[in-house]
Design brief:
With 419 residues, the chain is mainly α. The chain has one domain: Amino acid/polyamine transporter I (Up-down Bundle), CATH 1.20.1740. Helix content is 76%, strand content 0%. It is built from 17 helices and no strands. α1 packs parallel to α10, α5 packs antiparallel against α15 and α5 packs across α17. The chain starts with 9 loop residues before the first helix and ends with a helix. The mean pLDDT is 83.
């Protein structure tokens, strides 16, 4: 059976998660979410963070029990059933490929805002292909590159928050909730996109040192740090520019700087950080998708050729190439908001399965019934919160998501008959 090398530390794993979290969600999708929630997008960020935290607990519990490449696919397969595992992995791969395409569009939006002579779609496609090549070289090399990007983008966001606090216009916070609680929940369902990378270390568990401790620690640590940064950035952003202008912006944080701070070098720095942030998210997304595809192919749940490992680089190169090409093609077919909504449908559905998997695991463990009951309640709240947010996504995301699930069911039946 093909095996991958363990080469990532706690720092690497945490950077991998932060690299996957902080990106297009806060730099791009936050603008669209502001149009739904108004200044109360701050509450949307907090709600999405709470939902993510509940699911992160389930992720941490499962990753400490099953330290294997493939994360959610393995969890659902071993705690519920092989069919549940396949469908969870099938949907996870799909939504992350769409997420990669969404992120590449976000990256291109900031780049085009700096260099209008470039075209959005070609830039998005080129970014996906270049990072596919980086991913091919090896997980350790990719993690070093990612860690540098993570440190740079967090530094710029902290600088934006510090300078922005001295330029807040408190009139922009009124009316705080122009579209009511429904608008806040719609915003939360969309801004959830900003959190979906927190489980990324679990997808590369076989490449992480001491994964039973390192993976859950990195998941929790990365989510806590990212949520704090998100809340601060959200508060400052809506205090610098009217939310209506944020709603129509493809580069909301840069536009907030231009409108409310009027420091040109800071706008350039924020745009640079946005490009870096989306680069790191795209890189870690490609890492995650290729590893889950690899794990599923190794189990014969996907075509066997996807589990081939490169002799020199030690990476699942065919899985990387195929997912990279598909990610590069998708920006031709959809807008930023459409693809973010489809991504969130898949993410929320998959995270609901993660919480259910954790409940099933905890029910089987008998070490401490009182302690397990507490853990089960947390995972149950995670399950309910994910299902609730699903109903605040648009009809188009449901239609595409259900269609992909249907294709998956047909493939699973066909694959079983062929075995």
């Amino acid at each position: 059976m093909p095996k991958l090398k363990r080469s990532l530390s706690l720092f690497d794993a945490t950077a991998l998660a932060i690299g996957a979290i902080i990106g297009a969600g806060i730099f791009v999708i936050s603008g669209v979410a502001s149009g739904l929630a108004g200044p109360a997008v701050i509450l949307s960020i907090i709600i999405a963070g709470i939902v993510s935290s509940l699911t992160a607990f389930s992720y941490a519990k499962l990753s400490s029990r099953f330290a294997e490449e493939g994360s959610i696919y393995v969890y659902a397969k071993k705690t519920i059933s092989p069919f549940s595992g396949f469908m969870t992995g099938w949907l996870w791969v799909f939504e992350n490929i769409v997420a990669g395409a969404t992120v590449s569009i976000g990256l291109a939006s900031y780049l085009v805002s700096l260099f209008p002579q470039f075209s959005l779609v070609p830039v998005a496609m080129s970014a996906a292909l270049i990072l596919t090549l980086v991913n091919l070289i090896g997980i350790k090399q990719s993690s070093i590159f990612n860690a540098i990007l993570v440190l740079l983008k967090i530094s710029v966001l902290i600088l934006f928050v510090i300078i922005g606090f001295f330029h807040l216009n408190f009139s922009f916070y009124q009316p705080f909730m122009p579209n009511g609680i429904i608008g806040v929940l719609n915003g939360a369902a969309l801004i959830f996109f900003a959190y979906i990378g927190f489980g990324r270390p679990a997808t590369a568990a076989e490449e992480i040192e001491n994964p039973k401790k390192t993976v859950p620690h990195s998941i929790i640590l990365s989510l806590v740090l990212s949520t704090i940064v998100y809340i601060l950035v959200g508060i400052v952003s809506v205090g610098l520019i009217p939310y209506q202008k944020l709603a129509s912006s493809g580069s909301p944080i840069a536009d907030a700087v231009e409108y409310g701070i009027k420091i040109y070098w800071l706008k350039l720095l924020v745009s640079f950080a946005a490009i870096i942030a989306t680069l790191s998210v795209l890189l870690t997304t490609l890492i995650g998708v290729s590893r889950v595809s690899f794990a599923m192919a190794r189990d014969k749940a996907l075509p066997k050729f996807l589990n081939k490992i490169h002799r020199k680089f030690g990476t699942p190169y065919i899985a990387i190439i195929i997912t990279g090409i598909i990610t590069a093609i998708l920006p031709i077919f959809g807008s930023l908001k459409q693809m973010a909504s489809v991504t969130n449908f898949g993410s929320l559905f998959v995270y609901a399965m993660v919480n259910f998997s954790a409940i099933m695991l905890l029910k089987k463990e008998i070490k401490s019934k009182v302690k397990n009951l507490f853990y089960i309640v947390i995972s149950f709240l995670g399950l309910i919160s994910c299902i609730t947010l699903l109903f605040f996504l648009n009809f188009e995301s449901w239609l595409i998501g259900i269609s992909w699930i249907t294709i998956g069911v047909i493939y699973f039946i066909f694959n079983k008959k062929r075995e």
